[in-house]
Design a protein that fits this description.
single chain, 32 residues, mainly alpha, 94% helix, HEPN domain-containing protein
Length: 32
């Protein structure tokens, strides 16, 4: 169970990182 929780936490962190990267890319496009 602990290993599963750790994997879930890593997945959530990766998703949040991807969302932030996507937002920054969109801002870069639209600000120009």
């Amino acid at each position: 169970m602990s290993r599963y929780d750790e994997a879930l936490r890593l997945c959530k962190r990766a998703l949040r990182y991807l969302e932030n990267a996507k937002d920054s890319l969109a801002k870069g496009f639209y600000d120009v």
